[in-house]
């Protein structure tokens, strides 16, 4: 793995932009999530050359790594020690980086049964909008000194600063993972979710697509084998990594949106256009009418995230706090300003305080 | 900053809050002068007992208009003086807001008011086979609003996380009196992670008026192990060995000899009085997994040099072992006129080094320290025993506490894992963070509480304070 610390160069670039001698900054990693409508129009700060593991102590269950490091490389490193990321982190391409993953804050199929990416971020180092390199959080499991600025970067899409490195909690790999598949109609799913609940803590992922329900169980072999024997179904080679990384055919097409719903709430979907994860709490919809989808989701207490196709206006609650937080990190509005207005607070008529 | 005459405040409050929930007389106010760190005391101008979100909004708006400092407080079990009032200010108590608003078993969520006691959530959920995971030692007394403000942990957070990992939504009243809905019932949220920002913000950004917590299914099996060690270092190394072997225990706690003897005298938990350290370990989950890991952990303990490893034979014995651990603070309190509990977190592999260093520091200052802590998380709770009546004792205690916390920073840790900064650790913030980092915290505070009325001077020190403390430290070095 290439080990290269480019933080001084990156800080230089930020300072140049702040001094007005360069354009405002659009931050980019590998660009692998750009197929999903995230690429800034012209990336001006490339994090790909800022790579390498700063610290990895398997005993501590903590990994500290530079933002441009590839996720596949990190997965290999962890696997060699019998460990994995504690969260299920999507990597849309082989060259996807950890910085991009944190900036986007997406979670994979296991999220409903374990933790989210944001739950595993222990600390970060970043360049803020004053051109300062600052450290928040740390490499320990519990830390309440100061505001949790590290976790605040997860899903902030680089609008608060340039993420230099991140410390993440990792976890032991399960001894085994087994998938069983069943023919299940959409109408019968809510009954199935009662069954999957009884499979906790072994159940680690669910996916329903094209009339097939796939269940993954993970844990100690002795427990998983017993549970599988009781569960029945067909042995299956369902590719969970392809689902996690949005590489399945389902995800190709002109319009792709993701509906998040409260647990236990169901929303009618058309067969063939929807893929359900998280015991129905996340539904991927392709080729849908995003406006209508948003209305239906909101009526169920949920919301929609568009990955490709017709965008929706920002849905963040507390718009005023979003503006104030953005200004507190980035008073001159130098970082990913377009993304901020597209995803967090519409329009730039009202100036930041 | 307080340009309004105190006499304007009380009549304005009387117009908003019924008389019986407005405390102004000295004897009424006395119980609210401090939280569970009584070395920091102050008598507020007035105490308001909030009964509803409307009360909170009304008080926030009034304080905002009159520029009166405002401190909010739950049950007052905090250990860093975060709830210390201001002499000219309002102390807003949310403890009377203590209703469980809903408990939905299918979605595994409970919506509660901030004054609900932590353990009451678990008690209410038990009928549905569910429980609320974070369990601070004060869980029979601490309120969930305070848990959010401090991002409270507990003995089971190695596996189940701290408060922020177990709360899905909040309602928060800002200093302007606006009600924000933060988070939601979905497993993801659009926008910035405001939940993370509010957790552990120690009442500096707003007042929590409603909390939606996640509930977990009660584990099908829980087994408890106790291991006795001849040295603290061996016990610390055993902790790393267990984690390295791929086992994540639900709880992994350590007590040293002083803590063991104090606790044993207090509640006859059944601890070995001749051990230098004991580990208490909970394994929970699927019964087959628990049984396998139990055998694995026993073998690891044996290899790490444990003198003796016991399995709790019955639920009664298990409860007794845990009761001892959870009553360690009051038990030590019986041995010493006063005690002072610290809360640093260090990398797990440095626990042995840090415990040895603490012993050295304690000797230098002529004080005794008992250790009882969350070993699995590396979260230490050294308890300094002293007599506040003795001249200069408190100063020595504060110096020892500073030495310990600053050593935690030196080995790559932090000055607080779960008790918060409050007033108590404000100096050490200057050691853990640079001016640029403190500056970023201050910018956030300025943005979200522009008049600096909420817990001013706590959690984040001013830059001037940081420089002063660093200079003072430098002179002593």
Describe the structure.
- The complex is a heterodimer of chains A (353) and B (477).
- Chain A has 353 residues and is of the alpha+beta class.
- Chain A has helices at 7-18, 71-79, 98-104, 117-120, 149-152, 189-198, 221-231, 240-244, 290-299, 319-329, 337-344, and strands at 27-28, 45-46, 53-57, 62-66, 83-85, 121-127, 133-137, 162-172, 176-183, 203-209, 212-219, 234-235, 256-260, 274-277, 282-286, 303-308.
- In chain A, a hairpin with a 5-residue loop joins strand 6 and strand 7 (133-137).
- The longest helix of chain A has 12 residues, at 7-18.
- Chain A is globular, with a radius of gyration of 21 Å.
- The termini of chain A are far apart.
- The mean pLDDT of chain B is 95.
- Chain B is 38% helix and 19% strand.
- Among the domains of chain B are: 6-93, Uridine Diphospho-n-acetylenolpyruvylglucosamine Reductase, domain 2; 100-217, Uridine Diphospho-n-acetylenolpyruvylglucosamine Reductase, domain 3 (2-Layer Sandwich); 221-330, Alpha-Beta Plaits, CATH 3.30.70.2190.
- At the A-B interface, strand 7, helix 5, helix 7 and helix 10 of A face strand 9, helix 7, helix 8, helix 10 and helix 16 of B.
CATH fold-level label of the domain at 100-217 in chain B: Uridine Diphospho-n-acetylenolpyruvylglucosamine Reductase, domain 3
How widely separated are the two ends of chain B? 36 Å
Largest sheet strand order of chain A: 12-9-11-10-14-15-13-16
The side-by-side strand order for the widest beta sheet of chain B comes to 15-12-14-13-17-18-16
The helix tally of chain A amounts to: 11
Q: Biggest interface, and residues per chain?
A: A-B, 83 and 87 residues
């Amino acid at each position: 793995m290439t080990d290269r610390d480019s933080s001084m160069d990156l800080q230089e670039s930020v300072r140049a932009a702040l001094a007005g001698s360069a354009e405002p900054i659009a931050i980019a990693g590998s660009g692998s999530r750009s197929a999903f409508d995230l690429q800034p129009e012209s990336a001006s700060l490339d994090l790909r050359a800022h790579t390498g593991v700063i610290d990895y102590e398997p005993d501590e269950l903590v990994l500290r790594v530079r933002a441009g490091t590839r996720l596949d490389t990190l997965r290999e490193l962890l696997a060699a020690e019998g460990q994995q990321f504690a969260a299920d982190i999507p990597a849309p391409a082989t060259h996807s980086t950890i910085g991009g993953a944190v900036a986007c804050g997406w979670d994979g199929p296991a999220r409903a049964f374990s933790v989210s990416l944001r739950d595993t971020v222990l600390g970060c180092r970043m360049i803020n909008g004053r051109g300062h390199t600052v450290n928040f959080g740390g490499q320990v499991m519990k830390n309440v000194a100061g505001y949790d600025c590290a976790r605040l970067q997860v899903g902030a899409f680089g609008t608060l600063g340039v993420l230099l490195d991140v410390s993440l909690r990792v976890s032991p790999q399960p001894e085994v993972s087994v998938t069983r598949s069943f023919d299940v109609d959409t109408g019968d799913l809510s009954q199935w979710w009662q069954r999957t609940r009884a499979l906790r803590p072994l159940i680690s992922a669910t996916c329903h697509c094209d009339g097939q329900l796939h269940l993954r169980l993970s844990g100690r072999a002795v427990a998983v084998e017993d549970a599988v024997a009781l569960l029945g179904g067909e042995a299956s080679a369902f590719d969970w990594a392809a689902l996690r990384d949005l590489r399945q055919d389902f995800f190709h097409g002109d319009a792709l949106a993701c509906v998040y719903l409260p647990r236990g709430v169901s929303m009618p979907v058309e067969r063939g256009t929807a893929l359900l994860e998280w015991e129905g709490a996340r539904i991927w919809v392709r080729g849908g009418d995003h406006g209508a989808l948003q209305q239906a989701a909101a009526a169920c207490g949920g919301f929609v995230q568009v990955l490709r196709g017709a965008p929706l206006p920002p849905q963040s609650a507390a718009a005023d706090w979003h503006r104030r937080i953005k200004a507190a990190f980035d008073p001159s509005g130098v970082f990913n300003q377009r993304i901020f207005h597209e995803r967090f607070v519409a329009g730039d008529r009202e100036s930041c305080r | 900053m307080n340009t309004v005459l105190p006499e304007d405040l009380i009549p304005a409050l009387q117009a908003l809050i019924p008389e019986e929930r407005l405390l102004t007389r000295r004897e009424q106010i006395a119980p609210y002068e401090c939280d569970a760190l009584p070395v920091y005391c102050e008598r507020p101008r007035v105490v308001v007992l909030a009964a509803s979100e409307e009360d909170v909004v009304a008080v926030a708006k009034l304080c905002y208009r009159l520029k009166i400092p405002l401190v909010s407080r739950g049950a007052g079990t905090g250990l860093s003086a975060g709830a210390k009032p201001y002499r000219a200010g309002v102390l807003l108590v949310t403890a009377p807001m203590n209703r469980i608003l809903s408990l939905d078993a299918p979605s595994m969520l409970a919506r509660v008011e901030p004054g609900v006691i932590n353990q009451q959530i678990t008690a209410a959920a038990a009928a549905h086979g569910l429980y609320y995971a974070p369990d601070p030692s004060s869980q029979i007394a601490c309120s969930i609003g305070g848990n959010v403000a401090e991002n409270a942990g507990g003995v089971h957070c190695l596996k189940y996380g701290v408060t922020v990992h177990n709360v899905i939504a909040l309602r928060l009243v800002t200093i302007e009196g606006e009600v924000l809905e933060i988070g939601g019932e979905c497993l993801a949220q659009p926008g910035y992670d405001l939940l993370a920002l509010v957790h552990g913000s120690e009442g500096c950004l707003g007042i929590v008026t409603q909390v939606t917590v996640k509930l977990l299914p009660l584990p099908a099996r829980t087994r408890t192990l106790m291991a006795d060690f001849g040295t603290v270092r061996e016990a610390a190394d055993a902790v790393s060995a267990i984690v390295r072997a791929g086992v994540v225990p639900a709880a992994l706690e350590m007590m040293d000899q002083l803590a063991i003897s104090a606790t044993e005298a207090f509640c006859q938990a059944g601890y070995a009085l001749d051990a230098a350290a004991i580990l208490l370990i909970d394994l929970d989950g699927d019964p087959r997994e628990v049984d396998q890991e139990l055998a694995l952990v026993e073998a690891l303990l044996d290899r790490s040099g444990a003198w003796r490893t016991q399995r709790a034979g019955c639920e009664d014995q298990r409860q007794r072992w845990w009761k001892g651990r959870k009553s360690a603070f009051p038990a030590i309190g019986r041995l010493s006129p006063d005690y002072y509990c610290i809360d640093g977190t260090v990398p797990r592999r440095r626990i042995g080094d840090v415990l040895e260093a603490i012993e050295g520091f304690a000797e230098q200052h002529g004080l005794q320290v008992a250790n009882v802590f969350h070993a699995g998380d590396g979260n230490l709770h050294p308890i300094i025993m002293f007599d506040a009546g003795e001249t200069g004792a408190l100063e020595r205690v504060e110096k020892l506490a500073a030495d310990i916390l600053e050593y935690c920073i030196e080995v790559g840790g932090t000055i607080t894992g779960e008790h918060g900064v409050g007033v108590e650790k404000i100096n050490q913030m200057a050691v853990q963070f640079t001016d640029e980092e403190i500056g970023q915290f201050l910018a956030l505070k300025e943005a979200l509480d522009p008049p600096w009325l909420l817990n001013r001077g706590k959690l984040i020190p001013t830059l001037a304070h940081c420089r002063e403390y660093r200079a003072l430290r430098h002179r002593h070095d």
